[in-house]
Amino acid sequence: MVGGGQLARMTQPAAVALGVRLAVLAADAGESAAQVVREPVVADEKALEDLTSFAKSCDVLTFDHEHVPPAHLKALEAAGVVVRPGTNALLHAQDKGAMRERLSAMGIACPRYRVVADPGEVARFVVEHGGHAVLKTTRGGYDGKGVWLIDTDTAPEVVAEPFRAGVPVLAEERVNYARELSAVVARSPHGQAVAYPVVESVQKAGICVEVVAPAPGMPSERAVEAQRTALRIAAELGVVGVLAVEMFETTEGELLVNELAMRPHNSGHWSIDGAVTSQFENHLRAVLDLPLGSPDARAPYTVMVNILGGDLPDVYPAYRHVMARDSGLKVHWYGKAVRPGRKVGHVTAYGDDLASLRERAWHAADYIRGDIDE
Amino acid sequence: MVGGGQLARMTQPAAVALGVRLAVLAADAGESAAQVVREPVVADEKALEDLTSFAKSCDVLTFDHEHVPPAHLKALEAAGVVVRPGTNALLHAQDKGAMRERLSAMGIACPRYRVVADPGEVARFVVEHGGHAVLKTTRGGYDGKGVWLIDTDTAPEVVAEPFRAGVPVLAEERVNYARELSAVVARSPHGQAVAYPVVESVQKAGICVEVVAPAPGMPSERAVEAQRTALRIAAELGVVGVLAVEMFETTEGELLVNELAMRPHNSGHWSIDGAVTSQFENHLRAVLDLPLGSPDARAPYTVMVNILGGDLPDVYPAYRHVMARDSGLKVHWYGKAVRPGRKVGHVTAYGDDLASLRERAWHAADYIRGDIDE
User: Fold this and answer.
1) Which residues does ATP bind (chains A, B) (predicted)?
2) Residues whose CB falls within 8 Å of the CB of residue A214, separated by 6 or more in sequence, listed in order
3) In B261-343, which ranges are continuous DSSP H helix?
4) Which one of A330, B30, B335, B369 is CB 3.0 to 4.6 Å from A273, fit for a cystine?
5) Fold classified for B6-83
6) Cβ of B317 under 8 Å from any chain A Cβ?
7) Which of A46, A9, A3 is nearest to A336 (CA)?
8) Which residues of B are annotated as a binding site for ATP?
């Protein structure tokens, strides 16, 4: 797995159970995943020779994130390395412009969009779409980085900002959505696929903060529609591994695809404690071409809340407190230094009573962050 | 954790989630747990200097097995190392003679026993106990090793065998039991304790092959009695960490304590998939003096069946087959070379219908072993 973040870290327990050796290429020996695997490789994921050398020790190359340069991945594939998901599929998670074009060609509902070349084109797009737009760099964004909300009053220097990265810019209509959903599926090389229950995800400042599985009050036909869309994207793009399809659910009940991720995704963390097979285990099974495990939920509801760092770097007393307060809460810690706003872990609660599960999970996250003190 | 076996290996997923660094002292870099932790220490667990050096890198020293010499543990404690469970408690899992004496002094029902000095004393014991006895070396036995079934007809060389190890020998009455049970508890340094549901365990040739949680058809008062006995032993012996109390349930419904283990135990493996908090997580929480997690079962029944090696060293096709046949089965692989009779993994199935769960779990174990081919 290329990348030493928490996604690679959370893949290790699945690898331990399956008897799979998880090798990790990390930028730093102290990274989240590097702490928990045998002999992590500290190397530069942007350097082809480092990737080539790492790939020699592996049967299959897969990813903790989308930031490996596509040209390197193509070169690795050409040299015979088994890259999963493959370069052609992965491009649609790396490049939002390519993703929009492909999904539109497939007839999948998306926000209206245009790849724009300069602030002048942005201004025209804004006028044509009700006075608002969302600008996104087509490559390199994550967790709200690389996204700008624009309207007719936005200062010119802000409108100019997205163009500074030197990559194409995508303008999208501002969708009036009721909530955000995510459909996570896993697909193996010979085409077996499983779909997890569709979840509701809540973002704050572009960062996922809460996931409820399954999405409450969702008509089953609409959930099936979301799963079918995700399975269809996985099949048509030839995705191998986990694919997360983030969607907007509009007030009229329409589903519009927002983003794709081709790796275990924050909206699937609930599955570690809440599903028969976690997304991490199914990602491994898929990229290794093993039969996939059941994605079924184990409880009527599972709530996952991310723990974001607060102002106090030493969270150990709070960590103990939340465990003492709630012996049924599942705490997941990423081994990262605490910094304000940084994802340092998550908590999961499962059971029948959604309101109580949400209260329990949020209490723990808020307490660790230092927002409440009892 | 001293010891690189599957118990240390299965502790790693719990450590990953808790954000705890699990260090492992292994005899060989290829051992089960050594494969899955950062920088395992390859050293001799029988050498005090190796243990001392390893302990310097750890906050707490705990164990994958009971084979570290008690004198070394005393020396480490004297040098200020935090050893959990402590030497005085652990002695009762290391020395069956000490265990029997202590439990008898506590008034806990056990098989009738005597520490015997020679084959002559064995012969007297056999005559006094209905013509049968079980002989055990007081130290060093595991998985049926160090145990002999004796009766009046047993050949003298067999009766002499247990004495060859040079450690005291325990003679016990042959108990006419209906089944074997195990009560697993975890206890932290300041005395918090949790008790897992009492399970039924099935042994074959001294090796645990199946565990059903909870023990089917067990009157709740008897289950509570077993849990109370285990909690009382943990408290009186000052155990820190997981304590497994193996018991015989006689046809009259009496519970007799057979063995103690002070570490995660085969009879607790079901808890990884079947309980809110696994025995491995609670062992870590206990030895680190963190609040303990709920030991509650997540399903009406959980069945664990050990995978023992068969004659075919390459089990990969069978491994794939059982995953393809049953997407709800949880497969745990220990990363060990397959040898006939060796524990190389286990499978877990959970749900409502005990007969079907047993069929599913046994099918997988039998198929991987090569005993069945469809």
Assistant:
1) 96, 136, 172-175, 180, 258-259
2) A197, A198, A199, A223, A297, A301
3) 271-274, 279-287, 316-325
4) A330
5) Rossmann fold (3.40.50)
6) no
7) A9
8) 96, 136, 172-175, 180, 258-259
- Which residues from B are below 8 Å from A328, CB to CB? 276, 293-294, 296
> What's the rounded Cα separation, in Å, for the pair B89 and B78?
15
Class of domain A112-172: alpha beta
As a whole number of angstroms, the distance between CA A210 and CA A132 comes to 27
pLDDT digits (tens, 9 = 90+) for B97-134: 999 999 999 999 999 999 999 999 999 999 999 999 99
Q: Is residue B217 within 8 Å of residue B224, measured between CB atoms? A: no
The total number of residues shown for chain B amounts to 374
Calculate the alpha carbon distances from B186 to B189, B215, B278, B287 in Å. Answer: 10, 19, 11, 9
Alpha helices in chain A (DSSP H): 6-18, 48-56, 70-78, 87-94, 96-105, 119-128, 156-160, 220-237, 271-274, 279-287, 316-325, 354-369
Please indicate whether the domains covering B6-83 and B177-369 agree at the CATH topology level: no
* pLDDT single digits (tens) B331-346: 999 999 999 999 999 9
Interface check B345 vs A, CB under 8 A? yes
CA-to-CA dists, residue A44 to A72, A80, A334, B374, angstroms: 12, 20, 22, 47
Q: Closest by alpha carbon to A259, among A346, A163, A169, A136? A: A136
**What is the architecture of the domain spanning A175-298?**
2-Layer Sandwich (3.30)
- Integer Cα distance of B358 and A362 in angstroms: 39
Contact A293, A276 (CB under 8 A): yes
Helices (H) and strands (E) in chain B, counts: 12, 15
Per the CB < 8 A criterion, the answer to whether A257 and A267 are in contact is: no
Give A35-82 pLDDT, tens digit per residue.
999 999 999 999 999 999 999 999 999 999 999 999 999 999 999 999
Q: Does B57 touch chain A (CB under 8 A)?
A: no
